[in-house]
Amino acid sequence: MKETIFAPATAPGKAGVSVLRISGRSALKAIQKMVGIENPVPRQALYKKIKTLDGADLDEGIVIYFPCPNSFTGEDVVEFQTHGGRAVLNKLLEELAKMDDFRFAERGEFTRRAVENGKMDLTAAEGMADLINAETEQQRRQALRQMDGALAKKYETWRQNLVHLLAWIEAYIDFPEEEVPSSVADQIKEKIISLKNEINQHLMDGKRGERLREGFQIVIIGEPNVGKSSLMNRLAAKDVAIVSSTAGTTRDIIEVRMDIKGYPVVICDTAGLRETTEEIEAEGVRRAKLKAEDADLILAVYDVTKNNIDSETNLFQGRNVLKIMNKKDRVSADYRDCLFISAKTGEGIDEVLDKIGKYVEDALSLKEEPSLTRLRHRESLVECVESLEHSLIAPELELAAEDLRLSMRCLGKITGQVQVEELLDVIFKDFCIGK
Amino acid sequence: MFDVIVVGGGHAGCEAATAAARMGAKTLLLTHKIETLGEMSCNPAIGGLGKGHLVREIDALDGVIGRIADQAGIQFRMLNSSKGPAVQGLRTQADRKLYREAMQRELLHYQNLTVEAGAVEKLFYEEIDGKKEVTGVETSEGKQHFAKAIVLTCGTFLHGLMHVGPKKTVGGRVGEISCEHLTESLVELGLRVGRLKTGTPARLDGKTIDYTKVEKQFGDSDIEPFSYMDKEITVPQIACYITATNTKTHEIIRANMDRAPLFSGQIKGIGPRYCPSIEDKLVKFADRDSHHVFLEPEGLDDDTVYPNGISTSLPEDVQDAMIHSIKGLENVRIIRPGYAIEYDYVDPLEMRRTLETKKVSRLFIAGQLNGTTGYEEAAALGLLAGINAALRAEDKGREFVLDRADAYLGVMIDDLTTKGVDEPYRMFTSRAEYRLLLRSDNADMRLTEKGIEIGCVRAERQKAFEEKKQALAEAKEKLLHIGGTPRELEKLGFIVNKDGSHRNGFDLLAYEEITWEKLEQVWPELQNTRSDVVEQIEIESKYKGYLQRQEADIIAFRKDESFKIPVDIDYKKIGGLSNEIVMKLTKAKPETLGAASRVSGVTPAAVTAILGYCKKN
After folding, report:
1. Where residue B327 falls among pLDDT bands split at 50, 70, 90?
2. What is the rounded distance in angstroms from the CA atom of residue A125 to the CA atom of residue A115?
3. Whether B569 contacts chain A with CB within 8 A
4. Helix or strand or coil: residue B151?
5. pLDDT, averaged across chain B
6. Which residues of A touch B50 (CB under 8 A)?
7. Fold category of A210-364 in CATH
8. What superfamily does domain A4-105 belong to in CATH?
9. Interval A270-303: pLDDT, tens
10. Residue A314: its pLDDT value, please?
11. Among A2, A115, A419, whose Cβ lies nearest the Cβ of B575?
């Protein structure tokens, strides 16, 4: 076991209970020295007085000892559940830091140890991070599924398939006199093609899983003063919860994260589109257009009192667009395919939300098969498919074998089956300490 | 007093003794019978897939097996000739007598080498600073010899026990003795010893085979010799024959399975999966109703035929019935029955990469004794042990180590010393992850220079090597200066992608349909290039993209390989390692971080922990 690390597992601040976790070879010493129990019963909650190293009272609370390997990290783990106040926590941290071999944990270090000790694979660890960060019901479901190993299982099955295919080819190469039927070569080709198709299928999911993690992007565009911001305010206020509201990195794009039917949605309000010579405004227009290009759904807002519905339609090529006629209160008109609203009175907003909900559900709903959730997975899978394709046209069998070896390695990279220290470093940067 | 003593005169011993002698070490080879020096105990063939590669590698280091095989080969074939060059393997049927005689001629006149008859039964050792160190040997006649390094290559002779049905005979080979006490010496030295098994089929009288009923198989018409030093094969070439077992054969075997020592519990040792006995094949491939039997002649003036594919330890009467049920063998006379043999081996985890044992200084172990099977595997290990024994005797701290990216020999040693064996180890091309690089056409380019540097390559080969290297460099230089733009090339008859970029000779050879011969017709300066040089350049050009990728892998691999783990590391002190991993690492004692990562069950996380620990301390 490694040196002992500790960190609070709950968010700081005033609370009923605060949990602090310790993991490593000297974890038990924390109970021995601060609670005074030499051999605590494993995995049993003990309500005890917690003392400083000098023996002064610190707090009272629950202490649990999880001896290795049956713990979160696979090492000896100790949990302190104290009263949740800053002073209690600070004193506890201060005392622990004084102990030999103890140090404050780095970002994601607990989870990293869990992976290193084989308690979970990389995709499961990623699923856990997603679960902690999940803001909506559907995100939670997807993350839980991944944490339970649904993705790992899928990728490992593929990898095992490849291991078998490769073994066949190797047998064909290494035992030419052992009557390996020549039909084997054709069978292998067929299997490679079917595996390739299966992976491609998985890749062509419209980035469902990645979007469910990151949020469905809706961009509101329209000419100045058609009521874009009013619409955004209406949408945001109308829905169950505004999770957060931040001004974008550009001062003119404002993003609001929302939960619609359990799905994460990001709505962006942009600068009004018009020809302009004013430099800052022109930059705003440029960015608005750029944002619209990445949108999963565009809300095109028009002022019903003006007849300008065909402007900027080139932005809509190949993407989902919801045309919205604002200022319904001013006139009554009739355009096809449009929703009529009044951002001012709130009329028609329910309909807009309903329509958005349908788009979102269509694009993000969980399928029976687990979806790709990260770009990292996608890149490795794309590389894997390329190698598989390469293997099919390789001029010699041993070259095909080489390609299959590489594609196997690509799959292994996702679940952490290969030795990639850099990969671990990158992945664990996603984590917060104490989780 | 000798520099090096080699115990055993089989393929490992011959190679070890000559290698040590080439290195300049005063060498003694002890074998229990000089007449059986260089004997082929099992099948009369040298080479094969992976094995052919090993022979070339040994030859590149100036070893003997390739040249001897060229003097004894009676049917040369390039296996896998329909597949790519990296996985082709040269194999020859060898005339048993020619081989043995050629080997004896070679050894009995080898500079620095003394050959003496003597069965070694005991090792002498001293304890220096708490570490054991061997100093000499004693033969069964009580004769003592001392040396600065000792190489054991006893093959299957340690506690050799042969089985034919229920009948058991002590001996390392039919009609020969067994070393009954040497194992005790090894155990006393603290080495882990285990038991393995192998087998051999019956021998048939070729005069009584009905050749009209069996398929004839010819060798290649265009023969490539094993040795880089041999230009042609002068031994007469003959045909082999193929027949097959049938349902009746299988019925006979099945009806007597309870009498097979392999399944009755009489044999405890584990046999090779790759070279299964016929009774084994029937159990493992139950749905097959026929297996090939290759009828291999044992020599030009020897009527003995080796029926390859039906190795067995069934009782004699069953062997008799089984063989006579095979097409063409209905009236065959069986010269002697097949048998299985059990023998002691030393756990290869006890060896360092130099094949010196970790626990006992100056003691080297090679060949079947460290858990391998096959003449070529034995010879390769013998060669490496011989070189290192000579270096050990020299006491200058020099070592000769090959890694997985250097040679099949490096792959084998790494596999043995990091993973150990649970069955006799045989070489395959698929064991080599850098297979496209480790080819038999370039074994000399990969190894001869290293051999020259360490001192195991004699002047004649050195000269031949320098010449080839020079020719290769010149040809490569020429290729750089030919070629042209797609437009120019089109006029010359080469159709390439019209991307405007200039292509040189290497680029052109990468196209499947463009050969050196075609280039020669356009650029006459390429004419009169040595055929071995052309072959190598063609292969490298065709494999180019893949080779580049492998080279990138090799750089990463060598990084871990160059990180040495201290000999006295205590794995228990490293945090984060499970007890199981600590146990495995403590047993294998890997010498580098790379080797540690290949010990079975060692996770990437464990490797990281070891790295962290070593860096900190």
Report:
1. very high
2. 7
3. no
4. strand
5. 91
6. 174
7. Rossmann fold (3.40.50)
8. Probable tRNA modification gtpase trme; domain 1 (3.30.1360.120)
9. 877 777 777 777 888 888 888 888 888 988 888 8
10. 66
11. A2
pLDDT at A176 over 80: no
**Residue recorded with tokens 């020969």:** B176
pTM tops 0.90, yes or no: no
Residues in chain A with CB shorter than 8 Å from the CB of B293 are none
CATH of domain B459-554: 1.10.10.1800
B-chain residues near A75 (CB < 8 A): 576
pLDDT for residue A178: 60
Name the architecture of domain A123-205+374-428. Answer: Up-down Bundle (1.20)
DSSP of B40-55: --S-SEEE-TTHHHHH
Report the pLDDT value the prediction gives residue A435, as an integer from 0 to 100: 33
A397 touches chain B (CB under 8 A): yes
Q: Which of B79, B84, B436 sits opposite A176 (nearest CB)?
A: B79
pLDDT of A249 > 70? The answer is no
Is the CB of residue A103 less than 8 Å from the CB of residue A27? no
pLDDT tens digits, one per residue of A13-56: 788 899 999 999 899 999 999 999 999 999 999 999 999 999 99
Helices (H), A215-365: 228-238, 279-294, 349-364
| Reported CATH class of domain B203-341 | mainly beta
Mean pLDDT of the B187-209 span: 93
Q: What are the boundaries of each domain within chain B? A: 2-200+343-454, 203-341, 459-554, 563-616
This complex has an ipTM of 0.77
Angle at A68 between CA A63 and CA A71, to 5 degrees: 60
pLDDT tens column, B562-574: 888 888 889 888 8
| Per CATH, domain B2-200+343-454 is 3.50.50.60 | yes
**How does the average pLDDT of chain A come out, rounded?**
81
Inter-chain residue contact B435 with A398, CB threshold 8 Å? yes
Topology of B563-616 in CATH?
Answer: DNA polymerase; domain 1 (1.10.150)
**Closest by Cβ to A174, choosing from B294, B430, B607:** B430
Give the residue from chain B lying closest to A395, CA to CA.
Answer: B512
Q: Shortest Cα distance from B597 to chain A (angstroms)?
A: 9
Report d(CA B53, CA B51) in Å as an integer: 5
| Residue from the list B292, B546, B604 with its beta carbon closest to the beta carbon of A399 | B546
Phi/psi at B600 (5° precision): -60, 140
Domain ranges for chain A: 4-105, 123-205+374-428, 210-364
CA distance B54 to B202: 28
